[in-house]
Amino acid sequence: xxxxxxxxxxxxxxxxxxxxxxxxxxxxxxxxxxxxxxxxxxxxxxxxxxxxxxxxxxxxxxxxxxxxxxxxxxxxxxxxxxxxxxxxxxxxxxxxxxxxxxxxxxxxxxxxxxxxxxxxxxxxxxxxxxxxxxxxxxxxxxxxxxxxxxxxxxxxxxxxxxxxxxxxxxxxxxxxxxxxxxxxxxxxxxxxxxxxxxxxxxxxxxxxxxxxxxxxxxxxxxxxxxxxxxxxxxxxxxxxxxxxxxxxxxxxxxxxxxxxxxxxxxxxxxxxxxxxxxxxxxxxxxxxxxxxxxxxxxxxxxxxxxxxxxxxxxxxxxxxxxxxxxxxxx
Length: 330
Ligand code: AMP
Ligand code: MG
Known about the structure:
Layout: E1 4-8, E2 13-19, E3 24-31, H1 41-65, E4 75-81, H2 85-102, E5 106-110, H3 111-122, E6 129-133, E7 138-144, E8 147-153, H4 159-169, H5 177-184, E9 197-198, E10 201-202, H6 205-214, H7 220-246, E11 250-254, H8 261-274, E12 277-279, H9 290-302
Helix pairs in contact: 1-2, 3-9, 4-6, 5-7, 6-7, 7-8
The chain binds adenosine monophosphate and magnesium ion.
Residues 111, 115, 134, 137, 255, 288 line the site of magnesium ion.
């Protein structure tokens, strides 16, 4: 059995997990919660620095209960990007320290690719078009000739950040996504909002601002409903075109916004119409989690993709299509 310890901390969630080929052995998470407003990058990084040793020592405690010695771990993986620079550097420092002190090889993983691979692990999806809809990132991805290609992506902010930003302007607390979903359930009254798909890309910033403006004339319920309808229809349109273009017949949903039942329903209807299968992993594997970093770390470690500490710098703009998918055979 290969054992890999992975650490995630690109934004709000600090989470470390150990996985083997079969299962998540243990996972320990400590979440940064802003007291006011949204995620403050420096505060999030300070949170990660403050709780890194707590998370790791609790993880080692859980390993000890399972009679696993930290020395049995084969590799340490961490999110190399994309994400908030200060958060990435903090987590990378913790991973390097573990790697050096335990003399265990280091693996740097791409956070977006980790969302894809945990979904492929935890659902029957084999070669899907992936809608990765999270706070900061929103991308439509699919495997083609050695890479996860970006078929469509946001031109500005992620769909989750657009929801959160609107929610804050409406006086709701962070994260706004789940509350918007709740208010949207009390309306079927559509108010006109921008719908922005350009080629295969989408843009959410103007939609978020227009939704805020619409609050002057319409109820919160109506605006939440309409914001969801537009934002999610934009995502589904591009996902459908990626399916048509690639000829694939599976859709996999990932990212925190994937918790939304209306988004799932719309994707389900689209997949049904096209005869495609639609897969959603368990909720704990959708938002940012340590298990997905450990799992991609395991795949990469087995493919020989380790890095030297000297080469382990982080990249806040690390794109999934920069990664050679060495662990997949066509
Ligand atoms: P992630 O960045 O993948 O960890 O996901 C965080 C984002 O997911 C935040 O922007 C949340 O507002 C959003 N989110 C979480 N639950 C829901 C939901 N039920 N509906 C819409 N967005 C959600
Ligand atoms: Mg994410």
